[in-house]
Amino acid sequence: MSEQKIQELLAKEQKVFVTIYQIIPGLEKFIGRSQLNNNSNGHRVELPFYLAAALDKRNLAKMERPKFLEVEIINALKVNPVNVNLHEICPQFYSFAIKYLETHEDSELVEVLVKSKRLRSLEIFDRAKRFDEDHMDFVDKLDEEERKIFEKQRAICEESFSNYVKDFLK
User: Exposure winner among 17, 24, 31, 156, fewest CB in 10 A?
Assistant: First the structure.
């Protein structure tokens, strides 16, 4: 299974809150027997994203905006996206955001995410080429996909520099 497929799978497993509009047979498998009696109209439960999206699409429940896409986090991404610790917020931040946006239209959110991804990518590539410096504080803030990009880019830069030095010493 490719790394991208794994990230997509993990993003689908993230949990979101939904408000249930009607009794849904079999839902107790996901919410537990203790909440079974509350599986009724207007009840709020936390479900895996893939299930919440399916129920939302069929108008059986209303999916809430995920916690990691709340106003405070989006505002932080608008102000200084490079300093936002996405890994702490949601390890598959961008993968999950894409999955959410496939089910809910939000042009402002798309704009913020594209801009933040672009600025964070520029910072990733800039830091990756400075492989003689320690960037662990920065890497700790990256989501899983960004970490993979940083590692790959850093390896490319190190190899290029090594080849350059070898050619120079000939």
Answer: 156
